[in-house]
Amino acid sequence: MNKQRRKAIDEVRAKLEELLEEIEALMDEEEEALKNLPESLQESERGQAMSEAVDNIAYAYDIINEAIDYLEEATQ
Q1: Residue 36 in this model has a pLDDT that exceeds 90
Q2: Cα gap 10→75, rounded to integer Å
Q3: How far apart are the first and last CA of the chain?
C-alpha cells in the first residue's frame, strides 16, 4: 500500500473514531433517559422502544469499532 492510500485510510479511521465518540454519547444519553423513566414506564411500549434503541446503538458502536480495527490492520 502506498503512502497516499495509507494516509487516506488513516483519515477515514480518524473520522470514524470521532463518530464513535458521538455514538457513545448518544447511547449514554438514551440509557440515562431510560433509567430516569418511572419503573412502570420502563416496561411500557415506550420503555421497550428506548431499550431497543440502546441495544441498536450499542450494536452500531461495536460494528464501527470493528471497522476501525480492520482499517488499522490494513495500514500495517
Answers
A1: yes
A2: 8
A3: 9
Q: 1, 75 in Cβ contact below 8 A?
A: yes
Helix axes of 45-74 and 3-36: crossing angle, nearest 10 degrees: 160
Spatial neighbors of 9 by CB under 8 A, at least 6 apart, are 1, 71, 74, 75
- pLDDT-based confidence at 70, cuts 50/70/90? very high
> Which amino acid is residue 31, in one-letter code?
E
47: cell is 420503555
pTM: 0.85
Nearest CA among 12, 3, 4 for reference residue 72: 12
